[in-house]
Amino acid sequence: MPIEPPVARYRQVANELRGAIRAGQYAPGDQLPSETELVERYQLSRPTIRRAIAVLTAEGLVVVEHGRGAFVRPRPPVRLAFSRYQRERRRPSLGPFETTTAAQGVQGYGEVVAVEHHAADADVAARLDLDEEAPVVSRRRHMYAGEEVVQVQQSWFPADVAAGTELAGTAKITDGTYAALDRIGHGPALISEEIGARMPTPEEAAIFHAPPGVPVLVVWRTTKDASGRIVEVVQVTALADRNVFLYEDLPIERG
Question: Structure pTM?
Answer without folding.
Answer: 0.76
